[in-house]
């Protein structure tokens, strides 16, 4: 495999629109506006961006850490750690997700547990026209522990384990900024 299609080291990228369409056998560090992963990442991916997409051909073999406005997982991620306004999962997360967002749209599969802080959580359901027949597409194969200002209705069968709700207390913008600054400092140090 050529060096253009296979990188055997950590990758550090910045820019406006970054597309990863080559195999990375190492960690990926990106600071950009739009990031698209259409190939395999052998290590962890650390991404600060406005928009992050793990395409249908994208596969992050380890952890995906992201701070973004929007994230879409259409492919496969091992573990997902996201601080994002909108999180859309139509693909597969092998193990756990730890997400803090305004809206979580779960139209794919979580292999184990979900730890979520959000305002809205949506599960995909396809009905075949009959009232008694509903096919679930959004599923958590473990436990769901979530916090929200209001309790969210979880469709029957969407979570195979236990569901635990924690009422979310109002948080000030100063404390959220503090968390973001701390997270940014950690990632900058790692880079």
What's the SSE blueprint?
Elements: E1 6-7, E2 11-20, E3 23-24, E4 28-37, E5 40-41, E6 45-54, E7 59-73, E8 76-89, E9 92-93, E10 97-106, E11 109-110, E12 114-117, E13 120-123, E14 125-127, E15 134-136, E16 139-140, E17 144-148, E18 163-167, H1 173-190
Parallel strand pairs: 1-3, 2-4, 4-6, 5-7, 6-7, 7-8, 8-9, 8-10, 9-11, 10-12, 10-13, 11-16, 12-17, 17-18
Antiparallel strand pairs: 14-15
Description:
The longest helix is centred in the last third of the chain and has 18 residues, at 173-190. The two termini are 27 Å apart. By secondary structure, the chain is mostly beta strands. The chain is globular and about 50 Å long. The strands form three sheets. Strands 2, 4, 5, 6, 7, 8, 9, 10, 11, 12, 13, 16, 17 and 18 form a 14-stranded parallel beta sheet that branches. It is built from one helix and 18 strands. Strand 14 and strand 15 form a beta hairpin. The chain has one helix at residues 173-190, and strands at 6-7, 11-20, 23-24, 28-37, 40-41, 45-54, 59-73, 76-89, 92-93, 97-106, 109-110, 114-117, 120-123, 125-127, 134-136, 139-140, 144-148, 163-167.
């Amino acid at each position: 495999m050529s060096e253009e299609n296979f990188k055997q080291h950590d990758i550090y990228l910045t820019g406006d629109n970054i597309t990863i369409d080559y195999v990375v056998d190492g960690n990926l560090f990106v600071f950009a506006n739009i990031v698209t992963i259409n190939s395999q990442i052998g290590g962890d991916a650390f991404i600060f961006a406005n928009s992050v997409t793990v395409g249908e051909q994208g596969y992050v073999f380890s952890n995906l850490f992201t701070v973004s406005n929007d994230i879409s997982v259409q492919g496969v991620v091992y573990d997902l750690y996201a601080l994002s306004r909108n999180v859309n999962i139509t693909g597969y997360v092998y193990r756990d997700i730890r997400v803090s967002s305004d809206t979580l749209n779960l139209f794919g599969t979580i292999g184990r547990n979900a730890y979520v802080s959000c305002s809205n959580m949506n599960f995909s359901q396809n009905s075949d026209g009959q009232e008694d027949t509903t096919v679930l597409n959004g599923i958590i194969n473990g436990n769901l522990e979530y916090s929200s200002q209001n309790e969210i209705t979880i469709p029957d069968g969407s979570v195979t384990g236990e569901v635990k709700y924690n009422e979310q207390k109002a948080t000030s913008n100063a404390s959220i900024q503090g968390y973001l600054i701390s997270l940014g400092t950690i990632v900058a140090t790692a880079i």
